[in-house]
Amino acid sequence: MWAMLINTALTMLVGLIITAIFNGAINVPKKKKAEDARRDEDWRLLKKGIQALLKNDLKVRYDYWLDQGYAPEDAREDLEAEYQIYHALGKNGVMDDRRNRFLAQPKEPQETEG
To answer: How far, CA to CA in Å, does 101 sit from each of 13, 34, 51, 82, 94?
Structure first.
């Protein structure tokens, strides 16, 4: 009688262990894949958000200096550093025209006659 109970208990225990092993072997990779996909999506969204913030800041600052009619050296350095980061996040050409017009300006205000 005890032998039969022990045998039944061991059989059930082995069955549970095998089920747990196979369940882990199947579900762990699925869970990791889902976590990886979520992390990739989070990074994509962060990158896109940072790029949007940089684009807005560049637009405001380029427009300011374009309105001023000149581009001082410190503004050139700051905006160029910011532009390079924006550009590295994914070139889309939206800011190229503003940047080129900004860089084409004189470095000091031009004296006006009158």
So the answer is: 76, 46, 21, 16, 13
